[in-house]
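Minutes, project huddle
Topic: does the predicted pose make sense with sulfopyruvate bound?
PN asked that the exact inputs be recorded in the minutes so nobody has to dig through chat later. Recorded below.
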Amino acid sequence: MVDVERTLDEAGLTNPHVREYVAHWANITGAERIEVVSAADDARLIQEALDAGELLPAGEGRYYSRSYYKDTARAEERTIVATSNEADKGVYNNWKPAAEMKPKLVELMTGASAGKTMYVIPYLMSPKGSPVEKFAAGVELTDNRNVVLQMIRMARVGVEYINDLGDSFVKAVHVTGDLENLGQGTPDDKRYFVTVADERTILHFGSSYGGNALLGKIAHGLRQGSYDGWKNGFLVEQFMLLGITDKQTGKKYNICGGFPSASGKTNLAMTLAPDALGDRYYVEFYGDDIAWIWVGDDGKLYGMNPENGVFGVAKDTNEKTNPTAIDSIVPGTGAIFTNVAYNPKTQEVWWEGRGEKPTDLDGWEDWKGEVIADRAPEHADDPWAHPNSRFTTTLANVPNVAKDFEAPEGVEIHGIIFGGRTRDREPLIRAITDIAEGVYDGLTLGAEATAAADGLEGVLRYDPMSMRPFMSYSEADYAAHWLEVIGRATTKPIFAHVNWFQRGDDGRFLWPGYRENLRPLNWLMEFLNGEVEGVQTPVGVLPKREELNLEGLDEQCLADLDTLLTIDVPRWQQEMGFREKHLAQFDGLPEEIWEAHRRVAAALDNA
Ligand code: GTP
Ligand code: SPV
Ligand code: MN
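Predicted holo structure (tokens), as shared on screen:
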């Protein structure tokens, strides 16, 4: 039996509520040892993980890890939001009664960490001192050292963040389970990822990967956070956040926005390096996956990134697509690569879209650890890296991280954008000035599913505000909450819908994307500022061709621009029918949203 009291004393963990919680779960999980960690323990824990073979060296100060091959992405069908109030049941939150789920999780976790260390990770999902700080603290308990190392990068970790907070911290319990015997994806699946939102308790069993296991990020930073935000008047969204300064005018604009998982948030937020588009604009990075947004005392809308790091998709990250990302994972950064290809002889890592595939196969292993040179002919073309393989690095490593990225007051939000991953219909950008139409646009965001979620690749689905996998209460209440919060702001943001993924008949992307995405964003800020007028269409204001900065774009792209800047009315009318069905699922959706829908539909019919 562990001497919990003495261990916590030695670690300086004085908060009695946290102590009681740790002792309670140590008893249930049956861990053999307890260790309280802080960011200062990183070097020692890295060394332990290297010694244990859990991490492999990937050049100076960089590391490589593999997760179990059936545990490589969030498992949405096993993810549940539980509360004691059935009114919280939505279409996407997989609601279950708390009284049903809690005993199940206790049973699964009982004795499940026997022989292991239970790490206690006190964390804060916010810079210290922010107005939403009291919703940002948590204590993750995990029996997995790699999860600790990831959390140290992704959150602010140490007892100093929670000792003075009494009982206002999220209880986040993670137990890995016996990964080889969990029946992942079968009818006998034993995994459960449960957020008991009205008790601020997260119970995740059966994974050691990403959002299933780093509980500060998705489970707290999004699901629990959005439930708390609903009850306490702020928004919590799967949004990136960036700042653009026009050096000629000295004006700075901050834009946040949602793109479904693996649809370009990290790339947009990081890739617009300081020197993008000559040197007129200075672009700063705030966050790539989560934003918490509130109305300040001055009536302005503010936003902040609650995270301390980036857990980015590796695929297609290279010097050309995202040089900033490449610079933030160079030797010495402490970056961790997960499920990419690895060469133990040279300690190199590689993934699809990194650059030339190594021609000398000597030493190379794929993400499962299989030797590439020994592949059977029928597997010769299998990807080397898992499509959801990732890199983890801290914000401080990102070369263009904003100077004020840790400012507790957050930054003013001027624009909110939604980005679908759609191969047709959606133009490059359309600006929306009406608040209800902006919220309506977010609610009807759609995307072709990607590798960040298990088993759904290629299927087209709606993803309201890019929160579908993270929704914690009903969509109707969610829509009403958006209208309430934005309605309260006295300085209104502009909304826009963007699409970098429109394709030609031959399958090529019509827009070059990545760093070039600054062009439509600049147009949006000029529109907000009254410098350009655009063209009014039934679905928003589109740029006139000459209003966009087209300097340096290639011939092909210039030829495709007409398609990128037009509205296909019949195709849109068809879409309105799909949207109607989509929205009709949400009982009690605010009338303002339906009115916005009908206005757009009528405008299309009159076009
Ligand atoms: P999560 O971390 O899962 O929430 O993903 P994310 O939204 O941050 O997506 P990310 O930026 O990592 O991009 C996912 C994939 O889309 C990567 O393979 C990118 O290379 C690709 N991608 C991003 N931006 C663009 C773009 O402008 N054009 C094209 N064609 N692909 C892009
Ligand atoms: C996402 O899937 O949207 C992510 C990655 O940001 S994970 O942390 O695994 O959820
Ligand atoms: Mn995400």
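Observations noted during the meeting:
- Residues 216-232 form the longest helix (17 residues).
- The chain has a mean pLDDT of 95.
No decisions taken; revisit at the next huddle.
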